[in-house]
Amino acid sequence: MGLGAAALPILGFTGGAGALTAERRVRLRALGIVIGDLQPGEHNAITDVVGVKVGHVTLIKGEGPLVEGEGPVRTGVTAILPHGGDLSRSPVFAADFTLNGNGELTGMGAVRRTGLLGAPVFFTNTSSVGAVYDGAMGWMLEQNPDLFKGGLHPEPAVGETWAEFLHDTTGRHVRPEHAVEAINAASGGPVAEGCVGGGTGMRAYGFKAGIGSASRKVPCGDQVYTVGTLVQANFGRRPQLRVDGVPVGREITDLMEERGGKTKSMLAVVATDAPLIPSQLRRVCKRVALGMARTGAISTPGSGDLVLAFTNGNRLQADETPAAHSVGMLTDRCLSSLYKGVVEATEEAILNSLTMADTMVGRDGNTIHALPLYRLVEVMRAHGRLK
Length: 387
Hints:
The protein is α+β, with helices and mostly antiparallel strands. It has a single domain, classed as 4-Layer Sandwich (L-amino peptidase D-ALA esterase/amidase), CATH 3.60.70. The chain is 24% helix and 23% strand. The chain has eight helices and 14 strands. The strands form four sheets. It has a six-stranded mixed beta sheet with strand order 4-3-12-11-10-9, sandwiched between helices. Strands 1-2-5-6 form a four-stranded mixed beta sheet, covered by helices on one side. The two termini are 20 Å apart. Mean pLDDT is 91; it is low at 1-23.
């Protein structure tokens, strides 16, 4: 995980090109770059929402020319659990939003029909959706053998982005058991970012990227709610990249992907403990697009920009089969602050995915370079944006 802002003098960011090696990746705030003015949670991650857990399985194997079915392999699975209980028996309110639909996020039919999420959420690469779904469904049936006997028939939510530039996509190296491993690895606390889990083979704005997360504390009267995001970033062209409004992509124009390639798509999960109903959660989902835009994204026709939001503030006990549920609903006067939290957390999560990812070489020697942190700091200092 990243170091605190107080570590800046130790890392020596004022020392030019040699001040930071490729191995010493840190989160955005450790560089003195602060997004927005709301305060983050303890870990500045989606797991700051009480009960939320995240787990990764990372698959990196082989090098050299592509041999379909053998590798090289640069992929994995990321699992997000809304809480540690049996989701099929205790679902949470949820909603989704498609900014651009050239991608897949399974299980949304059930979410749209019922307004409930009763299964884990997963991120992976394009050809592995079926394997992850299969593994997750098997795990869910083990947890609840009566899964399909009740009124709610939940399905795993499995999202994908395209890792072909580094990865043997045709080989389908993710197996059902990897989804179960990611669930079993899920925990609260700090979230691993960058080249991990489903984000292993991904890139953004011509730099290596992958998984990123951030959170915000949102005041509402005498209450303070938490909202957190987790993204799998795989989109954007270099000239578009902006960091806190600074056109960084126009100032760092080298270190482009070797051998070319295209970048597209982003997955995002938003979690909160604010008491929201599905129609409000759908509005929350849409604010992810504003966070993306603040980093420079335009959501191209080939993008799969897909968002799922859920709240632990309304958690049902479906196994009790009551005639009616009593739920809370946040008033509109507090929604603006919540929206602001989503925008800030999404922007920072995307940037964390960049600052935490290492340079990676994949199939056929294809290379995606890491964002050079010392140069990012120099650009931000020149624009007066370091805290």
